Amino acid sequence: MAPPFDASIAHATAARAVFFVSDSTGITAETLGSALLANFPGAHFTRHTIPFVSSATAVDGVVAALQRAAADGHAPIVFATLKDAGVRARLVAAGAVVIDLLAGHLTELEAELGATAETRAGQYHGLGDLEQYFRRMRAVEFAIEHDDGQSGRDLASADVIIVAPSRCGKTPTTMYLALHYGLLVANYPLTDDDFPTDGLPRIVAPHADRCFGLTTTALRLSQVRHERRPHSTYASLAQCTLEIRRAEDLYRRTHIPFLSSATRSVEEMSAVILQSMNLRDRPHERPLT
Questions:
Q1: What integer pLDDT is reported at residue 288 of this predicted model?
Q2: What is the pTM of this model?
């Protein structure tokens, strides 16, 4: 059953309404749709994700929302991952511009494989390959155990060890690599206790070939830290400048690759890490769906 849909969606006159509609979780529609929208940086959008649209009641609720969104004179844009052709037709009839992210590709695959695609709703995010599923769960457990240097156990099994000062993006990047790629990723925070030093901290030094560093700008780091501990020495620009300078000096001395998280998304940083650490050639690195 679809969750209740909020009928009070506000519309911005300068923004085009965009809906990500799915008969499953909406993750695929949102990811692919957002990737397409990113090609139009000058445009403004109001975004709404509506998952589990697999019943007449759910479809009617979406249609009503689309009709309200169209009242500003612009047809809403819908990125859809829906197996039911009738549901898609209802959205088009509501005056929306429906971009079907699956139908054309399914038709091509049907022609190539000589088989008809199943019409079961919500199957894109099922367990699928159990081996891949359990690998991903193990990766998440590994990431949680080894977050922020909490454990040094079995670091030899890590595919990547992310090293960085606090609040540079270690944990989000770690979890993204674990969830999407099933990689075993640990992360270690560089603190005042790790300096001065000629090499990497003792706990990660034996695994230098798997270490990857993150940095950022001192101003950005100070802003992020102020949200956590406002007006503290920890968040001061002077402290952040010192920590960033020490970290980058350490990366260069120990010859470990690093990048700045200041202007990159987690997805972009993960892609750079995969490429830099030669993980793309590993059979288990392929994204999990």
A1: 46
A2: 0.65
